[in-house]
Design goal:
It is built from 5 helices and 6 strands. The protein is an alpha+beta fold and 180 residues long. Keywords: Iron, Metal-binding, Oxidoreductase.
Length: 180
């Protein structure tokens, strides 16, 4: 349910409801608040990182209704009613998500700053490929159904996530393993 409060003609805040990592949360936010700032500063989920704050690095990637988004570019009010999954919400209790396990097995991180965004993006990329969504490198005339996550497919699908340490080879291996 969306309502606004403000002074005069300027509406400055909005009441909204989000489902964050399976938990329903009602929040009143300044209309200029990004989803990233809401998650980090209000909800205290600090997995998604503020890297460039311009949507160029992918460190802030989260899943919105199962699709990956750069949370630094999205106003929180635009996510009203949505289901948001952060890296903190991927595990099932003590059982890590298969991609989290694959990142550990393949040493898919060095400093770890980009890792939460990489993992959320990888989960989204795997879901897109399984749903048959082509990428820019998917061969023309690809059969209906899942797209095979070759190294080239993973590189293309994950190209919006930057790792300054250069752990790309291991990240690609982790995403491919989790997709299997």
């Amino acid at each position: 349910m969306r309502s606004t409060e403000g002074t005069g003609d300027a509406e400055t805040t909005t009441a909204l409801t989000l489902h964050i990592n399976g938990e329903r949360r009602a929040q009143v936010v300044d209309n200029r608040t990004t989803l990233l700032d809401l998650l980090r500063e209000e909800v205290r989920l600090t997995g998604a990182k503020k890297g460039c704050d311009h949507g160029q690095c992918g460190a802030c990637t989260v899943l919105l209704d199962g699709h990956r988004v750069n949370s630094c570019l999205m106003f929180a009010v635009a996510a009203d009613g949505a289901h948001v999954t952060t890296v903190e919400g991927l595990a099932d209790g003590d059982a890590l998500h298969p991609l989290q396990e694959a990142f550990i097995a393949h040493d898919g991180f060095q400093c770890g700053f980009c890792t939460p965004g990489q993992i959320c993006s990888g989960v989204g990329a795997i879901a897109e490929a399984q749903a048959g969504w082509p990428s820019a490198v998917t061969p023309d005339g690809a059969p209906d159904g899942p797209v095979e996550l070759t190294g080239g497919e993973v590189r293309e699908r994950m190209s919006g996530n930057i790792c300054r340490c250069g752990a790309y080879v291991n990240i690609i291996d982790a995403v491919r393993e989790a997709a299997r």
